[in-house]
């Protein structure tokens, strides 16, 4: 396999190698399921391949990938809610623990942090996931979520303020 298709395949593999772990971590925070996250990952990279984007110069591959991941996660979440409403089931998201920073000293600390994160509004939790856990810049977050960098920064600030208050209630920082 040579020519353009071979080059596209290599570029797609390079994108996956460079950003796959970060995209996976972000999707997991949004979907809280390894199976859903793996399916979403496959969908994001398959779409890039099908649309020929790997062969084109993507100005900001990080922003592009996280925008595609954001769209896929939202689509999957909407479908999931429709299923839950149709069958009258409500599912709790306990898997957020795995996404909490490994620097937490104990399982109890990680549970408290995960609980505090779960209490944030979805838009703020998403910003924290991208900034704190995936090390994206506010410009990259803005592109991924189709918001301004200032909006991303202020949501992050508000989220940190709320997290601080929630964690103080749990006995952190006292």
Tell me which oligomeric state these chains represent: single chain
Shape: elongated
Q: Please state the second-level CATH architecture of the largest domain.
A: Orthogonal Bundle
State the end-to-end distance. Answer: 62 Å
Strand content: under 5%
Mean pLDDT: 76
Provide the helix percentage.
Answer: over 70%
Number of separate domains: 2
* Tally of helical segments: 7
Over all CA atoms, what is the radius of gyration?
A: 18 Å
Given this structure, which CATH class of the largest domain is correct? Mainly Alpha
- Output the CATH homologous superfamily of the largest domain: RNA polymerase sigma factor, region 2, helix turn helix motif
- CATH topology of the largest domain, by name, is Rna Polymerase Sigma Factor, Chain: A
**Major sheet summary line:** none
Structural class: mainly alpha
| Extended strand count | 0
Order of helices and strands: HHHHHHH
Low-confidence stretches: 84-103
